[in-house]
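Here is one chain, start to finish.
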Amino acid sequence: MISKKLDSNTTSATWELSSLVYKVTRICRKLRKQVDKCHLQIENKLHRKLLDLFEKETHLDNQKVLSTLFSLKDDKPLKDCCSQEKIGVPDLLNKVVVLLISKPEILPLEELLYLVQQTCSNFPRDDRTMRRYEIVWVPIPSSITWTDEENKVFKHLSDILPWYSIRQPSRVNSAVVNYLKHVSGFVGEPVMVVVDQNGRLANLNAIHMVHIWGPSAYPFTASREEKLWEEVNWFGQLIADEIDPLLSKQVEEGRICLFGSSDINWIRELSTRIKEMTKTGLQLDLIYVGKRRLNDDQHVSNIISTITQEKLSSYLAYPKMHFFWLRMENIKRSEIKLGKKATKAEHILKNVGSLVNFDDCEKSWALFGERFSKDILQLQGRKLMECLRLFQVWGENIEKVGFMAAIRRALEPPMASLEPCYICNVSEFIQGNQKEEGIVLCEECKRPMKMFSVYQCNAVE
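Its structure:
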């Protein structure tokens, strides 16, 4: 009897406990739903607030905007990666803020090094007071929650990179993350969103500007990008700028031929032909820049080793080849972004940008350019060799029409069979500022233009 009574009490207690667990679980579910609804309402409210801040409201400075983005849970949401010092939004007052939005690992090593070089050139590492802008790294994980690996990578990079960083990126509100991803179009590749001194979105992605011009792109606006292209006077400013001192010197000193190839026999023949041409007194520097999609490191290393041993040409060191092609890819992006907007450097932009596509299509190629000239000539490997083999025939025209025009005449049909070009270019005469060659090429057909002098008579009162 006692045993039955105990079993009955145990059963009753078990049912009561189970009933209590069920009730508590149901209450927890309801509370969880209410919490989720509250979070959703908060996120929707914050999203609308961000839209109003950036699209409707005007501000005297950037403080309200940046505080809404990063300071909701922390008065010092940033850190200086160099010093590890905690940074507050007031430290960004009156500065352009460039938000580098990326995955926690940012970029492959070579690309990351190039971005660091471009963002920090001309600024001492410990001098923050003279900078008119700051880069703030905003890492975004691949999913809602941060993985241990992502936290580890972020911790490592945020201790060594020369920028500001979100101190605790996992605490950034999901509405802020979603808004930044939406306005920038971030899907994995790094982007740079520019917030000006007045809290306005000045550029939704300026990363290609930074890759091309570095700090000179400040304040990183579309109008600044157009102005920078207007200031480009010759292709050497784009090809060599800050990539390699030797390459920069060779570009500035005269005529160069950049070439890419995965075929060492073609490189040997090109070197032989160019050396034969230079024996006639022609100044031409030959520089190997690799191939954009040549991912076999050992093959590239073997080509460079052969070039060095046989003294075939100059070349970019392997890491700087990556920098060169990164620069070319970003020039291509800039060309696409500018669209059909005309600039003084339109011809350079088009040709240098198309080099990326040219390299993808051709096993071997060469690009010719001259000191302080906008003219660029790209040739496919086989066609180039056919032309160089006939150097003794067309080389005689170099002194008369110039090197680039002489090559074009060798490649094109006889002048008599070409339709005449009626493009007119009027330039003001400035004493002591004449071109050494006295040759001007037509922007349309690339043939030498005839020069006529026009005089203006001013009436004397």
